[in-house]
Amino acid sequence: MRDLITAIGLILFIEGLVIALFPSKIKNMLKLIENTPENKLRGIGSFFLIVGFIIVWYIKN
Fold first, then answer.
1. Which whole-number Å values give the CA distances from 31 to 28, 36, 41, 55, in the listed order?
2. What is the DSSP letter of 61?
3. For residue 18, how many other CB atoms are within 10 A of its CB?
4. pLDDT band at 40 (very low <50, low <70, confident <90, very high)
5. pLDDT given at position 24
6. How far from 46 is each of 10, 19, 27, 40, 43, CA to CA, in Å?
7. Residue 37 Rama label (left phi>0; alpha psi -120 to 50; beta)
8. Which of 17-21, 38-42, 53-57 has the lowest mean pLDDT?
9. What does the alpha-carbon distance between residue 41 and residue 52 come to, in Å, rounded to a whole number?
10. Would you tell me how many other CB atoms lie within 10 Å of the CB of residue 31?
11. What is the domain partition of the chain in residue ranges?
12. What is the pTM of this model?
């Protein structure tokens, strides 16, 4: 459970840092995401989900 809370904190830290450093680029990216088809977003999300799972699995084993 402690690892999960640490991981969530790290995600929030990194996302906050990116938004704080590049607010205009984030706004442009959100506009681009709004115009992207849902199937493509699902595919990209699934890809990152699998890559993230593999990284965590590799580190833990």
1. 5, 9, 13, 30
2. -
3. 13
4. very high
5. 96
6. 21, 23, 23, 10, 5
7. beta
8. 53-57
9. 16
10. 9
11. 2-60
12. 0.69
Identify which of 20, 22, 23 has the alpha carbon closest to the alpha carbon of residue 12: 20
Question: Which structure tokens are listed for 26?
Answer: 């984030």
* Alpha carbon separation from 19 to 7, 22, 23, 38 (Å, rounded): 18, 5, 5, 23
Query: C-alpha 38: how far from its chain's center?
Result: 17
What is residue 15's predicted lDDT score, i.e. its pLDDT? 94
Reading the block at residue 34, the tokens are: 């709004």
Pair 37, 29: CB distance under 8 Å: no
